[in-house]
């Protein structure tokens, strides 16, 4: 007998599983379709983020940072250690334990909220006057289910170069880069975006000689250029080599060594040899094989599903969220959209201010921002004022041995409304939250300047940057 639900969610990544939980909290009967398998062949919830993305990469980044601290920075604290070694197998085991704990946590939440996990690949087969019908193709059998409302949350996958085969052994994407069983002596990375910089930083800390090749002529063009300039300086001092304006001409693998021929600064046939190559040139939406044609829905020229500001497609009852729709490919953006759609289905009127979604790059130092950059605001003709404050003047940062970087705050000249906050520093991912809250409430820079911040703390730099907007920083 065909199962019927109020809501079916396709995909159990951050957007999908959060949408399913919120819909269930609102009293809907909910099913969530997921086919993800880990290397052991076990079906898992959590999608790319929890299994081979955000969570495992941050676990490995934390391990690599601890290794670099022990091998290079503990002496600054008077702690003398020698013969520091890294056990890669143990590092991966720790990562896998964290991932398993998180995915098991989602399984618990599904049981708690009485969400049905449909294990297999979901695709549309048609629609009736009141519902949409889907086929769930499992390993040994298939079944049909239907729902009045369907949320498509199938996420994205790594973009590959058309002339380059990714085997996830020598030439890898983000998934393969999280499974190296040894530290490459020489590592090449194609792409200086978020993922490329994080993965390059991860293996550099563990001892790899890392070269990043980027096609764009500028570095971190989406970030504020003051922040990008500071990040470039810090990465260079760490030994991360980044070349901009690169054109990849040819890639060869011979005897477990990869050779990249490329053009750089108008010089052709430059050669880079490496033990491993990470291809990190962005991501593409997972919108193929969904049977969208069966319900009269199509993707656009870039493979995304077009939606309105409420994530509604052109079909009533069909919603799309996360990496398969417009906007940044960020897990927390997908989560917010999942909640938004579940509440719209319930008849509520939520909204998302996409200008208040923070960005984070988990390098060292971390990079985070919310709102617009100075160049964006000037291009709009906006009259602005800005202030900066460095962490080198902050007592807590000095005590932590993390005094590099600064916070930059931008506000409207006339109203003092906060328009953008940009951070390059340790713990930027946590510090940015104060700015997000402020911007959601349309706060002014003076609002933050008037708030008492704990001393000593890194958060004091946020207040000092706000004071600096009007030229009255206290400790500079």
UniProtKB/TrEMBL annotation:
Top-level EC class: oxidoreductase
GO biological process terms on file: 2-oxoglutarate metabolic process
Residue ranges annotated for the Pyridine nucleotide-disulphide oxidoreductase dimerisation domain, each copy included: 357-466
Reaction equations catalysed: N(6)-[(R)-dihydrolipoyl]-L-lysyl-[protein] + NAD(+) = N(6)-[(R)-lipoyl]-L-lysyl-[protein] + NADH + H(+)
GO MF entries: dihydrolipoyl dehydrogenase (NADH) activity; flavin adenine dinucleotide binding
EC number: 1.8.1.4
GO cellular component entries: cytoplasm
Coiled-coil ranges (or none): none
Subcellular localization: Cytoplasm
Keywords attached to this entry: Cytoplasm, Disulfide bond, FAD, Flavoprotein, NAD, Oxidoreductase, Redox-active center
Cofactors demanded by this protein: FAD
Residue stretches making up the FAD/NAD(P)-binding domain: 5-338
Free-text remark on how the cofactor is bound: Binds 1 FAD per subunit.
InterPro entries given in the database record: Class-I_Pyr_Nuc-Dis_Oxidored (IPR050151), FAD/NAD-binding_dom (IPR023753), Lipoamide_DH (IPR006258), Pyr_nuc-diS_OxRdtase (IPR001100), Pyr_nucl-diS_OxRdtase_dimer (IPR004099), Pyr_OxRdtase_I_AS (IPR012999)
Family according to the record: Belongs to the class-I pyridine nucleotide-disulfide oxidoreductase family.
Anything else known: The active site is a redox-active disulfide bond.
Full protein name: Dihydrolipoyl dehydrogenase
Record organism: Candidatus Vallotiella hemipterorum
